[in-house]
Amino acid sequence: MSGRRAVTYARFSTELQSDRSIEDQQALCHAYATRNSLTVIADYADRARSGASIIGREGLIAMMEAARDRHFDVLVVEALDRISRDMEDLAALHKRLSFAGIDIVAVHEGKADTLTIGLRGLIGQMFREDNVHKVRRGMAGVVRDGRHAGGRAYGYRPIAGRPGELEIVETEAAIIRQIFEAYAAGESPRAIAGRLNAEGVPPPRGQRWNASTINGSRQRATGIIQNALYGGEIVWNRVRMVRDPETGRRVSRMNAEDEFQRAPAPHLKIIDDDIVRLARNRKLSRSTQQPRGRQSKRLLSGLLRCGACGGGMTSVGSDRVGHRVMCSTHRESGACENSARYYVEKIEAAVLRGLGHALADPELVRAYVEAYREERQRAAAHARNRRAGIERRIADAGSALARLVDAVADGMLTKEDVADRTAALRQQKREAEAELALAAEPTKVVELHPQAIRRFAENIQTLGDVLTARGQPDQAMIAQFRQLVESVVVSPRKAGEPYEVWPMGHLAALMGLSAELVVAEEGLEPPTRGL
Fold first, then answer.
1. Are 126 and 180 within one domain?
2. How many helices (H) and strands (E) does the chain have?
3. Angstrom distance (rounded) from CA 29 to CA 429
4. Do 273 and 201 fall into the same domain?
5. pLDDT for res 391
6. Ranges under pLDDT 50 in the chain
């Protein structure tokens, strides 16, 4: 193996472990390389990263990129489980490195082959899964001792130096009592959230209180009202975490109720039993009410947006005039000042009238499309120039790295001489590659499609006739309408003022193309007033 280029890879799993672990692993790998006449040209590492997935491990990814470019011949690690503790991932990495002609060498085991990879992958995964079971067993013991095994809970703070033990935060406990009393008295979660926001009470997380913060999910027993801890009971093991193999992210899954673990915790009790019982009974009665019949989908369902905050619009029932909607943000938390209520029928009529007027005038549509084309031409030129600049930066950084690697390989420079510069260049290259991935592709510029205009104009006329007759358009008509209209912004208004709506949509639909080819949020019509 004399004279061969080598890199090292080191990893430790959690933030509770010391950074020194990386240095210790690298020292072992360098000593092994020296004994075996290998020239170490780079060190790669991941700090506080689990071996359960390769996703999010920048050091490993950078090492594999260098392997793909044949920058080294041998990968040296302290042990194979530093690369991965997942059977599938370890086998895949070994396959790719073998294809590139690169050997994997573990300090304590020598060169890895297919058998070694299979055995170590199996052992590593079994060790990881066994650790999960041990951690869960330890947490179960914590619960049996009357200590808290979960994350942060509003109303409590951890006691320093006493793991799992909590104490009540009186200022937050007072808010919790207000919430329970108001809910038990019949006040809605939306009203409670709105009042807390108006009073400037800091929420448990985020920027504002929402109805869901108080109400939560009945199935998962989330939300203030359903938190058993406030009644003096610790409930643990409602959910388990599993890792998504596609994204590397941990997601929660509900456990069966007979797997829940419960323990009394009277010292953490904030709410009296009577209030807890009243609140839970109200929650249960509302949850078990028969659901309303499924309502047919309206023309603008899911398309309406509040002009004050950009949030969606939610239904607030009907009266003898028609169906009403209002800003969902205002209703849920009071964070938006737009308290106006709107009749859906009037919004639909205003939108169809405005679009019908626009599509009936070919010159007006042509003016819109021409302005769009000019803007897209400018955007396309800018995108091409920007991408070219980023690609030059990536190429320059790659060339500079290659020259440094060659200089080290030829003995002109040492690893220590180039360490800082290579790290900086790799960082520059990674940042430029990330920037390139986000950079917009040059947009294709296309022409107006007259048949599409006629088709949409006819469809809008038909929709208007159906709605005027108090009918309900079929799903095919609604689908065609939604090819053109992406959203409708409804401006705030005071009582008695006319409605002002902004249809926003895909100009691609007017060009007879798929919306994926041309994505534009251009207003198809100036503010439409009336009704």
1. no
2. 14, 19
3. 26
4. yes
5. 83
6. 1, 15-17, 288-296, 445-448, 507-509, 511-531
